[in-house]
Amino acid sequence: AVIGLLGARKSLGPGCAAFGLSRDQLAAFKEVEAVLASCPKLTIVPDVAEDDRFHQVTAAHDRLGIRFLANMQLISPGGQQIGYICLLDRGARSGLTEAEIASLGHVASLVMADRRRAQRHLHLMHVADRALRVDEMLRLVSSAASCAEGLTKLLEALCHFHGAVVGQIWQLVHSDEPLVQVSHYHQDQQIGTAYQAMESLVD
Fold first, then answer.
1. Which tens digits make up the pLDDT trace of 94-116?
2. Contact present, 12 and 4 (Cβ < 8 Å)
3. Angle subtended at Cα 193 by Cα 191 and Cα 198, rounded to the nearest 5 degrees
């Protein structure tokens, strides 16, 4: 059996977990996987050797040593194919019973539920990480001796987080005047400066 599931980097294709297959057989299955991607949601092939869809990958299923194949696509709530569960057998078979198809669907549901839990966990970790970063930024500003120092520390922290070499903060003092740069950071020079040019906002 093989289970394939798309990860965060979808361009790399689905990551696979296999049971009962060697590394070489799993590599050969990748060619069969490409054919299955264009097949219906549930594809049952009693004998791969007799199915025209797989003639172009005959060498692959010969290396696999399979005849029977049953593949169920994993579909996201948005209707996108994000993976599959594929059952393989060395001997040809007439098909699957209704109970076996239902069991395969149950396993597919478990895989999808586990994927949703993993996505929720990643989302919560992302939210928590953002909250910690905001808290750190507020602490930097509140502990600064002056507004200018607070801006400098804030800009430096933002540049470090985003991997930026240069950072600038600009301020609009009056709508009819150009923007004024109030803070500047340059990573290569290890320089961070801010300008106490904010008195006009007090008026």
1. 888 899 999 989 988 888 888 88
2. no
3. 170
70 within 8 A of 36, measured Cβ to Cβ: no
- Among 67-81, 87-101, 146-160, the range scoring the smallest mean pLDDT is 146-160
| 159, 165 contact by CB (below 8 A) | yes
pLDDT, tens digit, 9 for 90 and up, residues 125-147: 888 888 888 788 778 778 877 77
Q: What are phi and psi of 94, to 5 degrees?
A: -75, -25
The residues near 157 (Cβ < 8 Å, ≥ 6 apart) are: 136, 137, 140
Reported as a pLDDT band with limits 50, 70 and 90, residue 194 is low
**Which tokens hold the place of 43?**
């594809």
d(CA 61, CA 49): 8
Helix H, strand E, coil C: the string for 127-183 is HHHHHHHHHHHHHHHHCCCCHHHHHHHHHHHHHHHHCCCEEEEEECCCCCCCCEEEE
**Half-sphere exposure (Cβ direction) of 186: Cα atoms closer than 13 Å:** 4
Cβ atoms of 3 and 85 closer than 8 Å: yes
